[in-house]
């Protein structure tokens, strides 16, 4: 039996996009302005701090007025990156890189004449080769001032750009931000907001269990989501209407919730099966 069937709701929690938090809304508004001014923006942060939420909000913001080609396969070469962009623009991607670049520039100018803005969104940009990023920056430099190249990355990209050899790229950045981890109160509001969106009563998660999830999530939205879902699944299996700390601890006993320090300790320190794990 699934969560939604057990609790009598239309769909499972965390299947609808949440509202942006205050600091995320501020970042979104800045990115949106850069789409009309021309920019190279970096949104950095640890996995699960809200980068994907910002990206999806940009994509859904104004489908008619803001074109948002998305590059999610950043381990590709520049050659393949161009072809992904051409596909997003609806342009022909046959021929040499030079021909593809020419078509993309022409398409960008056509969009400008129509009054449309452009935001090229690149996921996991810290994995992209900087030589490829340089060529992409040079390409978008030929676009009219209706575009924004937005890099969603982990903080190591900022560290690489801080090297003197990469000053040519860093000097072109028009805006950068570091998404912080969330406070436990924000995590709790996020979880309860998701419950409201699917019609799940707040009592489906006990107060102590909610507080334990908020502490154990370490400020990461994705952790809060997976811990909550795991606790609810344990409640479904036990045929309970409320997931308590017992269910949360059952999820925290899974090996992937252990810290690095735990795995550096002697094997004898590993809790025996059935012993509740301590919240991290």
Based on the model shown, name its key terms.
280 residues; six-stranded parallel β-sheet; 10% strand; single chain; alpha/beta
Average pLDDT value? 87
Weakly predicted, low-confidence segments: 272-277
Q: Determine the N-to-C terminus distance.
A: 30 Å
Overall, the morphology is elongated
Number of DSSP E strands: 6
Biggest beta sheet attributes: 6 strands, parallel
The percent range for helix content is 40-55%
Calculate Rg over CA atoms. 22 Å
Order of helices and strands: HHEHEEHHEHEHHEHHHHH
Number of helices: 13
Q: Please identify the structural class as seen in this structure.
A: alpha/beta
- Per DSSP, what share of the residues sits in E-state strands of 2 or more residues? 5-15%
Mind explaining what this structure looks like?
This protein has 280 residues and is of the alpha/beta class. The chain is built from 13 helices and six strands. Strands 1, 2, 3, 4, 5 and 6 form a six-stranded parallel sheet that branches.
Task: Walk me through the topology.
Blueprint: H1 3-7, H2 22-37, E1 39-44, H3 51-61, E2 66-67, E3 70-71, H4 78-89, H5 97-113, E4 117-122, H6 130-140, E5 147-153, H7 156-161, H8 167-170, E6 175-178, H9 184-198, H10 207-216, H11 221-237, H12 245-252, H13 260-264
Parallel strand pairs: 1-5, 1-6, 2-4, 3-4, 4-5
Helix pairs in contact: 4-5, 9-10, 10-11, 10-12, 11-12
């Amino acid at each position: 039996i699934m969560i939604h069937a057990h609790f009598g709701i239309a769909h499972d929690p965390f299947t609808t996009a949440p509202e942006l938090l205050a600091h995320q809304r501020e970042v979104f508004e800045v990115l949106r302005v850069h789409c009309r001014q021309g920019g190279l923006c970096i949104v950095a942060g640890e996995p699960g701090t809200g980068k994907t939420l910002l990206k999806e909000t940009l994509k859904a913001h104004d489908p008619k007025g803001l074109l948002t080609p998305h590059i999610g396969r950043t381990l590709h070469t520049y050659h393949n990156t161009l072809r992904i962009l051409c596909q997003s623009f609806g342009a022909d991607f046959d021929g040499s890189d030079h021909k593809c670049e020419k078509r993309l520039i022409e398409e960008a100018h056509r969009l400008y004449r129509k009054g449309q803005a452009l935001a090229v969104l690149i996921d996991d940009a810290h994995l992209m080769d900087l030589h490829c990023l340089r060529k992409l920056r040079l390409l978008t430099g030929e676009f009219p001032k209706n575009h924004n190249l937005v890099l969603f990355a982990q903080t190591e990209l900022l560290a690489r750009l801080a090297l003197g050899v990469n000053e040519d790229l860093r000097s072109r950045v028009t805006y950068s931000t570091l998404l912080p981890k969330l406070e436990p109160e924000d995590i709790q509001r996020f979880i309860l907001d998701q419950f409201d969106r699917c019609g799940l009563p707040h009592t489906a998660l006990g107060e102590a269990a909610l507080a334990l999830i908020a502490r154990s999530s370490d400020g990461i939205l994705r952790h809060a989501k997976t811990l909550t879902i795991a606790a609810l699944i344990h409640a479904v299996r036990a045929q309970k209407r409320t997931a308590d700390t017992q269910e949360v601890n059952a999820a925290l006993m899974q090996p992937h919730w252990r810290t690095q320090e735990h795995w550096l300790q002697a094997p004898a320190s590993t809790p025996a099966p059935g012993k509740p794990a301590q919240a991290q």
